[in-house]
Write a structure and sequence with these properties.
The structure is a homodimer. Chain A is an all-alpha fold and about 200 residues long. Chain A folds into two domains: about 45 residues, Homeodomain-like (Arc Repressor Mutant, subunit A); about 140 residues, Orthogonal Bundle (Tetracycline Repressor, domain 2), CATH 1.10.357. Chain A is about 75% helix and about 0% strand. Chain A is built from eleven helices and no strands. In chain A, helix 7 packs across helix 8. Chain A is elongated, with a radius of gyration of 21 Å. Chain A starts with 10 loop residues before the first helix and ends with a helix. The relative contact order of chain A is 0.12. At the A-B interface, helix 8, helix 9 and helix 11 of A face helix 8, helix 9 and helix 11 of B.
Chain lengths: ~200, ~200
């Protein structure tokens, strides 16, 4: 009798599957209430096996949140790389970033403790994300300056100001505090206002 | 023997004294750790007597925070009523409001739970404060439009945008999260940037 070849599992695929199941549980049950054992259970594996891939629940959350932030960065790039007037693209980018954060991070109430935990446990990730976003916007401002649409003595400081102005509309905790307001209208007004500050 | 005239105490003075002692304790010991009995003790009166003036510790805190907010509104009025270019006054007003909030609400670490409790227990106060500040800034924008310095289709929406842009630099929780950054430089850059969005 020949030994049946045991299907090889790709470690990357296992990691991916763990993240997917964990994200589902964090969203449904909440980050604080989910345990690594719960995640392992749904995957039909042992908790010890999950720990071979991730040191802790916090490490799993870090990866999930990093992917959410990567999604936001991708969105920003799409607007930067599009055709057309840099002013219009910056305005659209800001509104889209607000909507992305409002919908991904806040819409589902249970997400809140996951995001809050990620912000407090992995502040470095958030800082890196802000740096990247800042640099992407700086690039778009430079493009606008070259095209004669924008005027800015220092594109880096200008990008800082743009993001600073949109802080309340991008920060999950602040979005949640104002979730009953008409944030979409506010975001559109604010984006137009902020872009006006850059106009040549 | 004539009965010694008992000094009459003015209820307003007692209220004032209670608020003063309570604010001192909230700042030194923290809001959560201070009890009405502690406040009464320092005043040499019974807790029951304190309760004749304020229904609860939360009611005391509401009055203290309302006074802090009134102080901020006074500061805003001073800039609005000053002489000179409306653009320069708006810029100075924004930087001054940031400094006021940073110094009054945040500098003393123990203040934080007092402010956080006030924000969550008395959200209506904060909303009223924002409304007043918004209207004061709207007035300054209208003045700038009349003077030909500012251009704004709708001064109310413009004031909303100005305050929205400065939200991160005015909100105590957000200031605290970034307290290690060079917030003063940031506030100056942001104020100049925001005023630029209004320029005619």
């Amino acid at each position: 009798m020949t030994k049946a070849a045991r299907p090889r599992t790709d470690p990357d695929e296992v990691r991916e599957k763990i993240l997917e199941v964990a994200e589902g549980q964090f969203r449904r049950i909440g980050y604080q209430k989910t345990t690594v054992a719960d995640i392992a259970d749904e995957l039909g594996m042992s908790a010890a096996n999950v720990y071979r891939f991730f040191q802790s629940k916090s490490a799993i959350n870090q990866c999930i949140c990093a992917r959410l932030l990567d999604g936001a960065i991708e969105l920003a790039w799409r607007h930067v790389r599009a055709e057309g007037d840099p002013a219009e693209r910056l305005e659209a980018l800001l509104v889209a970033m607000h909507r992305h954060n409002r919908e991904t991070l806040i819409q589902e109430r249970r997400m809140h403790d996951m995001v809050a935990a990620a912000v407090s446990e992995h502040w470095e990730n958030v800082k890196t994300y802000k740096e990247r976003l800042n640099t992407i916007i700086e690039g778009l401002i430079r493009e606008g300056v070259d095209a004669g649409v924008f005027a800015a003595d220092d594109a880096r400081i200008a990008a800082d100001c743009v993001l600073g102005c949109f802080g309340m509309l991008l920060h999950p905790v602040m979005i949640e505090q104002c979730i009953d307001d008409d944030l979409d209208t506010k975001a559109r007004h604010m984006a137009r206002f902020v872009v006006r500050a850059l106009k040549a």
